[in-house]
């Protein structure tokens, strides 16, 4: 009776919160694609607050951190972007997700490269590249190769940068 009704109401509330998260994230994606980065940031921030209000919710939290981190990267708030992308990456890896963290590795490697942290960027991308290659995931191999290539190019390792650029191009064909 009463306990079952209470459990159903709690379940419905969680489902409603999850739906709100997805609605805010979708709207943020639209804003981001339109180039309205501050509007996207505000919506991703609201989506993340919704995700943080739901217990035992590492999947939505990881997505929220990753999305917000990416728009912060586009805005140029590198320190905050790196913080959020790292949080998304760590949560995804803790959950056992294999694909999501690879996208985070691409974005984080680029952010670290822009900050001049070439060794860290290279290591992050190369470690992810090994996973993407085992999965035979052409898009992620291309992205991680490009991210690693950018970092090593800026370090001055031109031969390795060229090899990584070619690896990326071959995946895109």
Characterise this structure.
By secondary structure, this protein is an all-alpha fold. Helices cover 87% and strands 0% of the residues. The chain contains eight helices and no strands. It has helices at residues 2-33, 37-52, 58-75, 78-95, 100-114, 118-135, 138-155, 158-172. Helix 2 (37-52) packs antiparallel against helix 3 (58-75) and helix 6 runs antiparallel to helix 7 (138-155). The longest helix is centred in the N-terminal third of the chain and has 32 residues, at 2-33. The radius of gyration is 18 Å and the shape is elongated. The model has no long low-confidence stretch (mean pLDDT 92).
**Rg over CA atoms:** 18 Å
Tell me roughly what share of residues is in helical segments: over 70%
Order of helices and strands: HHHHHHHH
β-sheet strand percentage: under 5%
- Kindly state the number of beta strands: 0
Number of helices: 8
Distance between the termini: 61 Å
Structural class: mainly alpha
Form type? elongated
Mean pLDDT: 92
Q: How would you characterize the largest beta sheet?
A: none
| Unreliable sequence segments | none
Indicate the topology.
Elements lengths: L1 H32 L3 H16 L5 H18 L2 H18 L4 H15 L3 H18 L2 H18 L2 H15 L1
Helix pairs in contact: 1-2, 1-3, 2-3, 3-4, 3-5, 4-5, 5-6, 5-7, 6-7, 7-8
């Amino acid at each position: 009776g009463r306990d079952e009704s209470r459990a159903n109401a709690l379940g419905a509330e969680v489902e409603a919160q999850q739906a709100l998260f997805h609605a805010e994230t979708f709207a943020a994606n639209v804003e981001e694609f339109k180039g309205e980065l501050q509007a996207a940031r505000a919506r991703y921030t609201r989506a993340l607050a919704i995700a943080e209000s739901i217990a035992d919710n590492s999947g939505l939290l990881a997505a929220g951190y990753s999305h917000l981190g990416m728009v912060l990267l586009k805005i140029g708030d590198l320190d905050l972007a790196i913080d959020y992308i790292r949080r998304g990456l760590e949560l995804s890896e803790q959950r056992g997700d294999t694909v999501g963290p690879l996208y985070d590795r691409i974005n984080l490697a680029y952010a670290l490269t822009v900050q001049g942290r070439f060794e860290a960027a290279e290591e992050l991308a190369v470690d992810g590249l090994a996973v993407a290659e085992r999965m035979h995931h052409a898009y992620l191999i291309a992205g991680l190769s490009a991210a690693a290539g950018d970092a090593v190019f800026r370090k001055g390792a031109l031969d390795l940068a060229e090899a990584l650029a070619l690896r990326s191009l071959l995946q895109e064909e």
